[in-house]
Amino acid sequence: MEGGFSVTLDQEEDYRFRVDFGNSELIVDEPPPLGAGTGPNASRMLAASVANCLSASLVFCLKKFRQDVKGVKTTASGTLIRNEKGRLRVGEIEVVIRLESNYEHLDRCLAQFEDFCVVTASVRAGIPVKVSVLDFEGNLLHES
């Protein structure tokens, strides 16, 4: 799936933009006091992108082993910090993936799924990303 991609943003009002992905749309907005908080802001979109990419990568690997993957729940948390100029930056993203079932060949997938996540690998070039995978009982299966 090499090649480029694009999204289009149209300002609706103040900090509220409609994002056209080509096949769907989404409203993004800054939280108060800047915006009205009618949609996620860029920091939350970044965290969602990392979480989605990791989750999809793990599901893809398990499906390669013909596993019926269901009930994956992923939470991404971001930490905001100030740089040396006092500007807010995303300092870290932590992702926790919860699996609702045990899967065959899970150990093989856990050893490699992060390497295939385009977004996480790209983001890690500038922002630390921590990843944990838990089973349905909350036991830690993988951590990086």
SSE layout:
Layout: E1 8-13, E2 16-20, E3 25-28, H1 42-64, E4 73-82, E5 88-98, H2 106-112, H3 118-123, E6 129-134, E7 140-143
Parallel strand pairs: 5-6
Antiparallel strand pairs: 1-2, 2-3, 4-5, 6-7
Overview of the molecule:
- The chain has helices spanning 42-64, 106-112, 118-123, and strands spanning 8-13, 16-20, 25-28, 73-82, 88-98, 129-134, 140-143.
- It has 144 residues and is an alpha+beta fold.
- The two termini are 26 Å apart.
- The model has no long low-confidence stretch (mean pLDDT 95).
Overview in brief:
This protein has about 140 residues and is an alpha+beta fold.
Mean pLDDT: 95
| Main sheet: strands, sense, barrel | 4 strands, mixed
CATH fold-level name of the largest domain: GMP Synthetase, Chain A, domain 3
Low-confidence stretches: none
Give, in spatial order, the strands making up the sheet with the most strands.
4-5-6-7
Span between termini: 26 Å
Short key terms for the protein model shown above:
alpha+beta, 7 strands, globular, 2 domains, GMP Synthetase, Chain A, domain 3, 4-stranded mixed beta sheet, 144 residues
